[in-house]
Specification:
Two copies of one chain form a homodimer.
Chain A (H helix, E strand, L loop, with lengths): L23 H15 L6 H8 L13 H13 L12 H18 L1 H5 L9 H14 L6 H32 L3 H18 L3 H8 L8 H30 L1
Helix pairs in contact in A: 1-2, 1-3, 3-6, 4-7, 6-7, 7-10
Chain A binds a DNA duplex (30 and 30 nucleotides) through helix 2.
DNA sequence: CCTCCTCTGGGTACATCGTACGCAGAGAGG
DNA sequence: CCTCTCTGCGTACGATGTACCCAGAGGAGG
């Protein structure tokens, strides 16, 4: 109501008075449906209410603000794909899977990748995923801060990657121009840059665009490997440090 | 005008008629000033125009849309810090410097980190930085795609890191609640989670929050090291592959 | 059953946004 | 000097989130 994020503390609805017609779950689902079909920009309180067959202001009986609704949406999709109760494989395999799971969810709900959340989401599903990720890295000799930092880097990488992966489609919807159409509008300018000769490597990027570049899956996996290699290196560094000190 | 991003192709102003009172540079500077002082949300065409002492619609004689203005703003701050003409040190040192430069710029202009740009910005300053980054990785045995991917990961990491670094301040301004005040509103809920015992690692994150965590500079450097270690590993892999094949 | 009092759904209103459109007038090219 | 382009800018439209208000429904206590 008053404080953003307090959505998780507020009970769905106390007992007195007439029973509510709708539910948070129902409203969240309606909002997600709209976001999936028409983009996050189409999710307005009026639109969500309209799809539910009610008035905009009625929604405020269930959620404190639009931000709260979005927090509900994010936590809901985070819980879509099940997670093992406890990590079974080695940490690298588990984290890779977790990253791919995150990417899959975001690709399924592109809007979820495009939102920048200021403060951590303490929804139950988000909490569970976070705990799972930390569990994967537990017992490898990293401090809790280092573990958190590693998870943070990983989640950040996935989010950033999918963001750019998805930005194209969002831009197409927003401007009504497909990437190809847009490229045509830029062609003369880009050509001038390439032929100017001052940016030889940029020119190579453009020139070799005719032959197929690395596909998105490959690029995602490569970036992930970079990060995981880095974490491995950190673990090994701390390990040998421990061995030389003890 | 019609096409977003075409801002870089359009000449500042052709010759006929009366000479313009303002300039793109002037408008961009005014917009950046507002964004720095009051957040990106405060940058409205009306507000920018007001600060310049003119009407909102006058700005559209200089920029095609608000998106174009934002593209100008982003490219402008990208050019704030000078870049060497050509990389002088080893690639790792250079890329570290480049990352820190990027972080510094974004911290100086927090709004620039919070924007998600759908399609690449072809402004002169952005172009130059991109070329510079690619140059650092040239000649190490990576393909142009791999180089681009590495730069992409790096830029993404910096952006993602600063995003979360900056989100807090933005959230404080937006909601009027400092992080401490917000934490108080969440305290009962978080306490319940911690004491529930189902999230022992999350509990450790919270519990050990009294002792100082890693500071932001350290966390940034750690994440960067992860990525650079990963790129190093990729370079070595390709190198030994070449040696065994030739 | 009656009464009360909370909680319901939802209408109206307000400030703010980007920008389409049109117009009076200024000023440079012929 | 005439003409025609380009100027700054006022008005207007359709959005947005949400504060505020009100009539009435219906569970709780007598």
């Amino acid at each position: 109501m008053d404080v953003p994020g307090s959505i998780w503390m507020r009970p769905e609805r106390p007992g007195r008075g007439p029973s509510p017609t709708y539910s948070r779950e129902q409203i969240t689902a309606a909002a997600i449906k709209i976001a999936d079909e028409a983009g996050i920009a189409a999710v307005s309180m009026r639109r969500v209410a309209q799809d539910l067959g009610t008035g905009a202001m009625s929604l405020y009986r269930y959620v404190g603000s639009k931000d709260d609704l979005i927090a509900l949406m994010l936590d809901h999709v985070e819980g879509e794909d099940p997670l093992p109760e406890v990590p079974a494989e080695d940490w690298r395999t588990e984290l890779t899977r977790l990253a791919e799971r995150g990417r899959a969810i975001m690709l399924r709900h592109p809007w979820s990748a495009m939102l920048i959340i200021g403060r951590p989401n303490f929804g139950p599903n988000t909490l569970h995923t976070m705990e799972y990720a930390l569990t994967c890295l537990d017992g490898l000799g990293l401090s809790i801060d280092e573990m958190l930092n590693a998870v943070f880097s990983l989640v950040g990488h996935v989010r950033m990657f999918v963001q750019s992966e998805v930005a194209e489609a969002e831009e197409t919807r927003r401007t009504g121009l497909t990437e190809d159409q847009w490229r045509i509008t830029q062609h003369a300018y880009v050509k001038q840059i390439v032929e100017g000769g001052r940016y030889p490597l940029f020119a190579r990027v453009i020139t070799e665009a005719t032959t197929p570049h690395l596909d998105m899956d490959q690029r995602f996996r490569d970036g992930l490997e970079h990060l995981l290699d880095g974490i491995t290196a950190q673990i090994h560094r701390k390990e040998s440090l421990r061995n030389s000190n003890g």
